[in-house]
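In response to reviewer comment 3 from the previous cycle, which asked for concrete evidence that the modeling workflow produces usable outputs, we include below a single protein chain processed end to end. The sequence was submitted unchanged, and the resulting structure tokens are shown without manual editing.
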Amino acid sequence: MEVYEFYNNKWGVLSNWLFGKSGLLKQSTYKQLTQRNHLILLRKGGNGRKALVEFDSMRSDIKKSVLELAGDPYTIGKKYTFLECIEKDEKAEKFFNEYLLENGQSLPENRKKEYTCNASLLNTISKIINQTLMRRRVLGGSQKKMWENIAEIVKNLDKNKWPHSLPENYRRLRERLKVYQTHGYQILIHKNYCHTHSQKLTENSKLWLLAKWSNQVQRTVCISQLHQEYNLYALSEGLKTVEEKTIYNFIYDEEIMPLWYGHKFGELKYKEKYNYQQKTKLPTLRDSLWYSDGTKLNFFYLTEEGKMETISVYEVMDAYSEVLLGYHISKEENYQAQYSAYRMAIQFSGHKPYQIGFDNQGGHKKLETENFLNKIAHLSIKTEPYNGKSKTIENAFYRLQNQHLARYWFFTGQNIQAKKEISKANMEFILANKSNLPSLTEIKEIYKKIREEWNLSPHPFSGKSRLQTYLDSENEKAPKIEMWDMVNFFWVERKQPVKWSSFGFSFKEKKVTYDYFVYREDGMPDLDFHEKAVNQSFFVKYDPEDMSMIYLYQKDPQGQLRFVREAVLKTEIHRGKQEQEQFEAEWIKKVKKENKNKRIQRRNEMDEILKSFNMDAESYGLIKPNLKGLENSKIGRKSKKVMHEDVGSWQKKESLQTVEDIRELY
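The workflow returned the following structure tokens.
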């Protein structure tokens, strides 16, 4: 208190206030008055003490001015002195914290504070009354005046600091203190608290109310309706009617609510409100955990038929950095969308994730059946269904939509639960500009750009871009992807083998014929392999998104695939000289030369074998034919003057024969 202070059982006024802040006296006047005893000092100043002038002995004109400026010390002082005397009752606090009601429940927190405050204030009143000096200082006067002053002080206490519920009437307050002093803390708890309103409800009535409130077919929409229907039921059953508050207190009792909450609002709402939710930490390394999920790509587009449509997108995201790794846009979330998104993610990352989290929707069952998910990750775990809070990717989708997609005028809006108007579509504007909606191709380009913006935007925790956050991290348990991994993860195996022919290797996929051949490192056909492969059957693995190369396999006796060679699309050249380029002409010459050399090599090898056993043509006195197109005559062979018919002439003659010619010949 800046003006008054209680000293030696008397109220005093601070001297420096009288000739300082108040402006009532000059310091010289103050000194004269104290010297003449017109102002009597209760306490001299010095050594840190402040001088005090006795309030009651002041000259009447000065006292009047002090009262006008600072108020009556006897009124003001009572409240402040009372507050100084209040001490929190720790025993009362413990009692009410541990107290259990008849129904086994604890007191609500606000009641605990209220009853502890009541006990503390009653203790203070008792202390002041029992101490004569304190009573005179704070209360003064007769017994009635004393209790009136106490009631006035208690009434005007700040309820935010002292949330009590003591009576304002001084007589009732006095009675409350007597009862409290006799019976202790127990008496401060309202005898009907927490169970009064339900006393009028029988056990059968409570069950009826629960059933009626939880009825999912003939629904009860509010407590007022339930109140009316219950009273009709009560009259028909000979029971007492009740007030609406009675039913409200029963239905919304903390112990009763979990019984009906799921039936009233759905089990997912019950789960969200009452199930225990784990507190988890996000990964601290890239590729530690990938999430994948499908959602609506929140854009309208115009089809070729002029219809306004939407489309879906399937995304794979790194949980640590929030980088969007791979995606696929399609009409629905299916096997192909998931397969393509994971493929892009693996190619983008270059590493195998330690764990992937996915729901069990769309084509995931097919991915699991083919063991695809277990191939690309050390662990593949289904996320708990209908539990969006557990998946970082759903929160990321929300922010992607809110921060990036919502900027475009053809934005469809977020899901139906979105409350902000900015999160909803402006359908008036969209429908007015339907003809100007982008095409699906344009939507795909826009979304590609948005994904890049997202990955280059600051990460919410690292401060760096999401992409840089991802690239700066290393994970020893996320191995680098090799070529064989890509084959194992993403290449498809044809169920039926294909036979190698003189033309090479050919098969159809989705009504398109693909021709392959095996080439050497120098780019020339591998004729050694070709000779051995003709008429052999091979199993094939290929990449559906890149048919330029395939792997050839054969099965061992145990039925296991054994890798043989890789083959690539067969080199195609122009047949006509007019369209041939120089490298094509050179290619033709090289291949022809290798074909000739291979023919000569194979003929000579076999000739040597025959000759070693005297089984060649010359051993029988006959002549070997020349390699047509390669040889005119053989060196060292004896020529005989006989008519030789060229095989080419014979073939030509044969091709011109008619049916009648053949009949005449034979």
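The CA atoms of residues 404 and 450 lie 7 Å apart. We consider this sufficient to address the reviewer's concern, and the full set will be provided in the supplementary archive.
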